[in-house]
Design brief:
Blueprint lengths: L9 H14 L12 H8 L3 H13 L3 E4 L3 E4 L4 E5 L5 H7 L4 E12 L2 H7 L6 E11 L2 E11 L8 H7 L1 H6 L7 E10 L2 H7 L6 E11 L2 E11 L3 E5 L3
Helix pairs in contact: 1-3, 2-3
């Protein structure tokens, strides 16, 4: 129980107790926790103390609220270490999640100014536009659009990408990705992207722009919107 004589504030003591329940799975992921009134009764503290403890846990990403329904335990964020070339699916699997990908669009289009600049090709050259939804344990965390020069993989199909993954499909054409340059920036998720990601409009997200190489040849420009509440990056400095 809480100690009023301790030098640590009551709300902080309560926060640590509640956090322990979350980490020990006493309160399961996406499970509803007791109400503020119930917590007040359980721990014999004021509602102000309870609200402050819950606010801190929500701010740190351990809890989330549903209007009119209560407070729930947040699933832990997927953490991506940035130290070498990686595959989303392979990294998700290493973290103990089951990765999956849905191809939601596959078209042959002409490169606009932005795509041409990133791929270092002439404007209006034919490129594949491949839209994919990335999932971990069936929960979407990223929506991405990849642009691939058509001449690199003539005959590439949506079925190949859905079955084998994009990079494995490209290897059939003698293309082996080995380097990528990525840039990140914070964004508010648009209403269109929110539909794919099952997120709220204007909720925090990450915009990732990725240019992938096979030796010195640029083979892909990818634009990803990633849920900020479900994914985080860790940079390894050596």
């Amino acid at each position: 129980m809480l100690d009023e004589k301790a030098p640590v504030a009551l709300y902080y003591q309560l926060k640590e107790i509640l956090l322990e329940k979350i980490k020990n799975n006493e309160w399961p992921i996406n499970g509803k926790i007791p109400t503020e009134r119930e917590l007040c009764e359980i721990f014999k503290v004021s509602r102000i103390t309870v609200r402050q403890a819950l606010y801190e846990l929500e701010k740190e990403g351990y809890l989330y609220r549903k209007q009119g329904k209560g407070t729930f335990v947040t699933a832990p964020k997927i953490e991506q270490r940035l130290s070498s070339f990686y595959s989303f699916s392979e990294e998700i699997r290493k973290m103990g999640y089951t990765p999956s990908t849905q191809v939601v669009g596959f078209d042959l289009v002409t490169a606009d100014d932005e795509v041409a600049k990133y791929l270092n090709i002439a404007k209006e050259v034919s490129v594949y536009s491949i839209r994919r939804l990335r999932l971990a344990n069936q929960e979407p965390f990223a929506y991405e659009i990849s642009f691939i020069p058509y001449e690199l993989c003539p005959g590439l199909t949506s079925e190949e990408v859905a079955t084998n993954g994009l990079y494995n499909s490209m290897r059939k054409y003698g293309i082996a990705p080995n380097k990528a340059i990525e840039t990140f920036e914070a964004v508010a998720i648009s209403s269109k992207d929110a539909l794919y990601l099952q997120a709220n409009k204007n909720s925090p997200g990450l915009l990732l722009n990725r240019v992938t190489y096979a030796e010195q040849i640029i083979i892909e420009y990818c634009r990803s919107i990633i849920r900020g509440d479900r994914y985080k990056y860790q940079i390894v400095l050596k």
